[in-house]
Amino acid sequence: MTLFTPSPDVADALASGAPVVALESTIITHGMPWPQNLEVARQVEADVRAAGAVPATMAVMDGTLHVGLTEAQLEALAQAENVAKLSRADMAACMATRGTGATTVAATMIAARVAGIGVFATGGIGGVHKGAETSFDISADLMELAQTPVTVVAAGAKAILDIPKTLEVLETQGVPVIAYGQDYMPAFWSRSAGLKAPLRMDSAGEIAAAHVMRAKLGLPGGQLIANPIPREAEIDRDTLTPIIARATADAEAHGITGKGVTPYLLQRIFELTDGRSLDANIALVRNNARLAAEIAAEMSSGTAS
Ligand code: PSU
Ligand code: MN
Known about the structure:
By secondary structure, the protein is of the alpha/beta class. The chain has helices at residues 8-16, 26-31, 36-50, 71-79, 91-96, 105-115, 132-135, 140-147, 163-172, 204-216, 237-253, 261-272, 276-301, and strands at 5-6, 20-23, 54-61, 64-67, 84-86, 101-103, 119-121, 151-154, 177-180, 199-201, 223-226. 48% of the residues lie in helices and 14% in strands.
């Protein structure tokens, strides 16, 4: 039995060394409401193609790890209810028991490594939640970045998280956090978290070269590329701060814990912004898909090595 099943396009691209961009599926099943989730998933795949790379959306379906989904599989996943949310802890168990699950950032990185894909585009990574000093809620995404060699393009950490603590954990874990084209750390829906980013790069070529250099040095782990949301789609921090505070308080009042926290907060913020948070989310994921495709092209052209 092979470990994963590539879609026909992905199989061709992997065989010829053409650029491939990994995409996660938790954003489809737990991050956005139907039917926008399917539209966005299709749009992001089209953006990757338009930028010259092949999209590989990851999911486990009936125990099979799919690297690249057909149109029918994508639609089935977007409509499915009670799909598991798979992180590092759940992936092998889901495959071994022939289950179905969507991949988080951590699980998508694992799938990308298994398939030999070096770049992955998403919206935002999981991180250290506000109040983690008592809840201990720290996403497995951070530890995955420390050990799995995939460059992850995100719009920073979501503003629902404690961004300073998230940066501290990434630093402790030795994960390069690279802001793209600006000095400041982006905060998902906003272009700036009001904090300087640890590193800055201004081209896809530099990012690809740094990825290759880490491998040459024998350093495990990936890189986090923090790509600011396009200016015209941004929601400013002053608008969001009270909304996030309210969503966080609601989560606590409803006793939401564990895997449920991130999806609950995203849904609540969607309601409290009358859908504006979703429009911003779509714009930033598409922007990340385009940059990831450029990085993938640099990696596969060989100039990065
Ligand atoms: N960003 C989004 N929507 C999402 C997520 C991130 O805009 O749905 C998902 C990603 O899959 C990420 C996960 O890996 O949330 C983090 O969940 P947790 O905090 O439970 O580790
Ligand atoms: Mn968590």
